[in-house]
Amino acid sequence: MRLGYGVRLVMLSCAAAIPALAAYAHHSFAMFDNTRSITVHGKVISYQWTNPHVYLEIDAEDGKGATRHFTMEMTAPSMLHRGGWTSRTVKPGDVVTAVVSPLRDGQPGGLLLELTLPGGKKMLPGVPNAERYKITS
Amino acid sequence: MIRRPMGTPMKAMLFGACLAFAGTASAAAAHPDFSGNWERYPRPGEKADPRYAPTPIPNPQLKPQYRAEWAAGQKILAERLSESQPPGDNYVHCIPDGMPAMMMGMFPMEVMQRPEQINITQEAFNQTRRIYMNQKLPKWDEVDPSFYGNSVGHWEGDTLVIETTGIKQNVRFRWTPHSEAMKITERIRLLAPDILQDQISVEDDYLEKPWTYSYSFKRMKDYKIQEYICEDNREYVDQNGKVHLKIKD
Known about the structure:
The complex is a heterodimer of chains A (about 140) and B (about 250).
Chain A: H1 2-15, H2 21-24, E1 38-48, E2 55-61, E3 67-73, H3 77-82, E4 95-102, E5 109-116, E6 122-123
Parallel strand pairs in A: 3-5
Antiparallel strand pairs in A: 1-2, 1-4, 2-3, 4-5, 5-6
Chain B: H1 8-20, H2 22-29, E1 36-41, H3 64-82, E2 109-113, E3 117-122, E4 127-133, E5 150-156, E6 159-165, E7 183-192, E8 195-203, E9 211-220, E10 235-237, E11 243-245
């Protein structure tokens, strides 16, 4: 819980910083549909700890016995690191549940908003202005 | 300056050495040590202690012939910010800020201080500027323009004064055009043991008067700077200026 609280603090502070956006906006999140979210559940294929963004790839279960590959963009290692994530927080083979702001262009991908680890622990990736992303799923 | 904890015999030796070179030692001790890791103060959403708050960044007072270009840029910038698009194109192309933008402190920064040279590394994009102490500032047309330029520093009491010139014209802060002759003067000092202030003044023939503002930084006691390699940039900008994500199969 300690880590989650820390991440929430980061999110809150980012949320209150709209005038400071010019200084803190990093990459574009406009390609994600922030009016809705989707929840995907499946097996982690890769968790790539890289700049400028960390990527989490999963084979998401479609509910009909098949899977669809899904790519999730996360923030940068620096922000994640300060929020309690490491390069080993998730590993290939882990079964996780992710809440995602989907790509507007319909490709199977999105911005990770929340991740539930195999043990049930919920992790927040410190998305700037997180309150602007509606969780509807 | 030696900062590591030492045993008593070592301390005694150092004390002797200091006595022997009293003049030099006291001169060196007169300068504060900015070495360590720093983050922007206040953090987003944090309320600043008014004693340490940075000054707001005003719009640059450009000469009339440069205002149209600046205004056009600001319009695009405002539109992008309202859409949560990135303010500049640099980061989307894996290109660092350069000076003076890197001092905004996107991520934590590290100061490494030696009497003859001070390095400042911004974690985002591994940006490092090197400040050579007590050297003459080269003329702007004697150096090759670069992202961080050429910086020289000297002490005025407790204040580190840094002069920088030789910034590439395409390296811009807030999309503000400038000449290759732009000169940046910074006055860096401790406002409190753990609060550092950087007063920035930009002088250029494009400006009617110097563009001045300040940043404050807070010491990060247990932080270690992370490496930053722009290794896998999957974002790209299309012809209309919209950013997309490349999805791997």
